[in-house]
Design brief:
Order of helices and strands: EEHHH
Shape: globular
Helix content: 40-55%
Number of domains: 1
Length: 72
């Protein structure tokens, strides 16, 4: 069983908590580093485009769609 890691982030001045598996956090962190963004900056970008999808789901889907792909 995979355990969730909960982190707090500030999005548009509001604190929120997100719980994801370690593998998703690692993928998001790696992509943020590659793009020279903070993790909070990347999460903010994803949040602004997620529509009605819950944030944790949007982060997981984004990480899957962008794994190992160069941004450009």
């Amino acid at each position: 069983m995979m355990s969730l890691i909960k982190r707090s982030v500030s999005l548009e001045g509001h604190a929120t908590s997100v719980a994801l598996e370690a593998e998703f956090w690692a993928a998001l962190e790696a992509n943020a580093r590659q793009r020279r963004l903070s993790l909070a900056g990347l999460i903010g970008e994803i949040d602004s485009q997620r529509g009605d999808r819950p944030l944790a789901s949007a982060l997981r889907v984004w990480a899957l769609l962008h794994q190992g792909l160069p941004e450009g």
